[in-house]
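From the shared-data thread, chain only:
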Amino acid sequence: MESEYRNRNKKSYIQLRMVYDFTMASLILGVGIILLFGNKFGLPIIGDLDSNIRYGFGALCLFYGSFRFYRGIKHDY
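Structure, as tokens:
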């Protein structure tokens, strides 16, 4: 009985973390794409930022978002 409860609890925790990782990955990847291609989308606020900082932070967001997406697929918690 105790082991069945722990297995069910662990499974629900893994599913929750997987959904959380996919959600955060999509948000972070979205920010990275907006930062990198903000000029092409016609966003004046993004275009006013310094290009070195914008491209650097956009690349960092893409890298970290990809890592979060990979961790959600692997779900080794």
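Residues 34 and 58 are 8 Å apart (CA to CA).
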